[in-house]
Amino acid sequence: MAKKQVPVEREYVVPLRKEWTKVVRHKRTQKAMKGLKEFIARHMRIPDRDIKKVKVDKWVNNEMWRRGIKNPLNKIKVKVKKDGENVIVTLAEIPEKIKYKVARDEKMKKESEKKKDKNSAKKSEEKVEEKPKTEEEKKTEIEKEESVKEEKAKQAEVQHKEQKHIAKVKPAKTERIQRKALQK
User: Are residues 93 and 39 part of one domain?
Assistant: First the structure.
């Protein structure tokens, strides 16, 4: 029988110092991020401890990189949500400075989704209202397309001729210069 996987949500204080002290200074924050993902993979029982299945929220990433590449955090408190194989890591305690940014981002996402829904509804209405084209209209469209293609072909020919003319002129000038140099 297949077991239903209940969404799991936990909070962890992840120790990072032991991880980043193992590497050179200019790779410390990268190693701390990898250590965070490995910790989460181990504790959330991800098969094969695959860190590619651990997705880190942008606020956690910003918090980790806030102090630069050489001086990462010693520990970080995170919330982890697991739905099936997907694991999402977010900050447990969002600082006051960023709370309004998070709320604003969520509000903007909702507004953009509403706009997309309205636009898609309008487009579907417009498609329904369009009348089928008559044969005459189709012929005129085809003629317009052919005339545009012909104009482009003519322009290409003119440009090609100009390039040939330029190519013929350049060697003559160089020959004159070479002759003058030999005469001197």
Answer: yes
